[in-house]
Amino acid sequence: MGSIYFDHAATSPMDPEVLNAYVEAVASGPGNPSSLHAHGRAARERITSARDVFASILNCEASELIFTGSGTESDNSALFGAAMAQRKRGRIGIVTTAVEHHAVLNACRQLEADGFDLTVLRVDEFGRVSVEEAKAAINESTAVVSIMAGNNETGTLQPIAEIGEWARKHKALMHVDAVQAFGYVSFNLKELPIDFLSLSAHKINGPQGVGLLYVRKGTPFQPLLHGGSQERSRRAGTENVAGIVSFAKAAQIAYDQLRARWDHAEHIRATVLGKLEQYLGAERFVVNGHPDHRLPHILNLSFSGISSESMLMNLDLENVSASGGSACNSGSLKPSHVLSAMKLSSERVSTAVRFSFGLGNTREEADKLAKITATISARLRNR
Ligand SMILES: Cc1ncc(COP(=O)(O)O)c(C=O)c1O
């Protein structure tokens, strides 16, 4: 057995079918979707088909979808786009949670620096926000509410429908970062009280550098990027045609296999947990995140007495890739803002490791991971 990749929440391997779609789109020749000639029209048709795929999966209209360059861009476009438009109506409140991805949190902080009134909701020890506290924070001056569907470090799911309902009652706009949840959870936008939804291709076995933003028809929105009239003048810039085409392919596969994907990830997660109990002992680690309201592909564990860095370095030496939190934090080794917001002890925060599962992972790998982790743990404890 070679290397083991358990960092799918950071980025996921491309599905071979998706890769084929990507290569086929690139190999089909040049074509700027804005050009009027046959090459351009062919490229435009590809994007139109990809948009139709998403419209059907998300149960929305194709005209409500904007292709972007990343999940981060989708989040920023939603927040700035909504906030700027809402400010013209006298609304300056932004409500979010302490466990959002930095693409949302730092965008909100920038809006605060620009004069918006920011409320960051706390979470409980499982990383879940209280619907009551969210309701209390939303009022007639709220411009945007941004709550993630599923957390990228713990997998904890948030009560987005209940909060969205309340936001709508108060004419505040609701944004949901579904970057981690999409592919495991289905989103029916005809029914969900959501105005903006962010997705990213590379978390669902698609290519890096492509995102999608849903903007409900009639929602006040000001574009982030100005230039050409691409994406109905809501996102300027020549489209990443091959990226978009293969993102749609990845989304279609994920949607068709939603249940199987969930069961597979859940099986790997349960195997890792069961085997760790067997090889290491249940008293040596603790699970961070909600026990029930959670995604299946993320397992955040704290190993008592072993720093995240030591565990990750030793795992890396054994050819196992995992993460200490969100990917962007793993380079800087900062304590996770998500686990800190859950008010876990500093020991639990500084010993946390995130394993995340997906395409290609096997039961054998799960077993091997548990064995390796138990060995590392025993070695480091005996030093
Ligand atoms: C919840 C969440 N939102 C947003 C992002 C950013 O997506 P991208 O990497 O496509 O910019 C990530 C990526 O880790 C994420 O997990």
TrEMBL record:
Q: Which PROSITE patterns match?
A: AA_TRANSFER_CLASS_5
Question: Which keywords, in A-to-Z order, does the entry hold?
Answer: Iron, Iron-sulfur, Metal-binding, Pyridoxal phosphate, Transferase
Q: Which GO molecular function annotations are given, in alphabetical order? A: cysteine desulfurase activity; iron-sulfur cluster binding; metal ion binding
- Give EC number(s), comma-separated: 2.8.1.7
Residues forming the Aminotransferase class V domain are 4-369
- EC category: transferase
- UniProt cofactor(s): pyridoxal 5'-phosphate
The UniProt record lists the keyword Ribosomal protein: no
Name the Pfam families on file.
Answer: Aminotran_5
Similarity-based family: Belongs to the class-V pyridoxal-phosphate-dependent aminotransferase family. NifS/IscS subfamily.
Name of the protein: cysteine desulfurase
Give the organism, scientific name: Cohnella herbarum
